[in-house]
């Protein structure tokens, strides 16, 4: 499992994939990466410290992800991140959080003491698909509600049952309401949620121009940021 990487094509930054406690929700139908979650505090701290020791601060920007929300990262690791921020002159952090923690984001901003780009896996702004099919447990109704708390949504495209109109709408919403966003092209995993190859082909043709868009990062594989397995 690669847990450290450098992103150099858009929004240059270092990225680390840390271990955290089990995702507080843990029931999204498409998700099997909670397998990286742990309850062994010592193991998490050791793995995370080793990964974080690779951070150089070369871009002044660090993204920290775990298979869940940043609030599930052990406190000792969060303190280590905070000291690395100071030591390595890091001036911007990317973190990810589920909607359920939206009222705690400011607490994290205060704790880290530098600007944070908060990502959120909305998967789609189509409320019915997100809640009923993907079982995301993120009950906002409008993009504006998300924007009140978060900076950069992640959406998924190419899931069986999604429509072209839903994807068009999601990309329009990302561009209209947010400065940054991530588009994950769905890849099959151990869950029953399946990829729609036709839809992926259509997306890749219609939206190939997004490769040049500095505000949207398109991930064709889960490992495109250079971390994961
Ligand atoms: S919130 Fe994220 S980590 Fe948790 S189950 Fe859903 S997709 Fe997986």
From TrEMBL:
InterPro entries membership: Elp3/MiaA/NifB-like_rSAM, rSAM, rSAM_sf
Identification of the protein by name: Radical SAM protein
The organism of origin for this protein: Iocasia fonsfrigidae
A molecular function (GO) term: catalytic activity
Domain Elp3/MiaA/NifB-like radical SAM core residue range list: 13-221
Top-rank taxon, per record: Bacteria
């Amino acid at each position: 499992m690669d847990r450290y990487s450098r992103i150099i094509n858009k929004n240059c930054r270092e990225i680390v994939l840390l271990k955290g406690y089990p995702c507080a929700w843990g029931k999204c139908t498409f998700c099997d990466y909670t397998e990286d979650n742990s309850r062994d505090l010592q193991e998490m701290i050791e793995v995370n410290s080793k990964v974080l020791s690779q951070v150089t601060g070369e871009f002044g920007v660090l993204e920290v992800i775990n298979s869940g929300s940043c609030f599930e990262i052990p406190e000792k690791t969060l303190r280590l991140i905070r000291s690395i921020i100071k030591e390595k002159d890091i001036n911007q952090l990317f973190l990810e959080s589920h909607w359920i923690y939206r009222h705690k984001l400011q607490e994290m901003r205060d704790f880290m003491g530098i600007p944070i780009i908060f990502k959120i896996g909305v998967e789609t702004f189509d409320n019915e698909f997100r809640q009923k099919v993907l079982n995301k447990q993120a009950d906002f109704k409008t993009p504006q509600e998300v924007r009140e708390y978060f900076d950069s949504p992640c959406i998924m495209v190419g899931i069986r049952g999604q429509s072209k109109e839903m994807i068009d709408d999601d990309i329009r919403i990302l561009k209209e309401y947010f400065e940054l966003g991530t588009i994950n092209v769905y890849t099959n995993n151990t869950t029953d949620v399946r990829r729609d190859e036709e839809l992926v082909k259509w997306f890749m043709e219609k939206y190939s121009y997004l490769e040049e868009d500095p505000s949207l990062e398109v991930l064709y594989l889960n490992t495109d940021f250079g971390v994961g397995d």
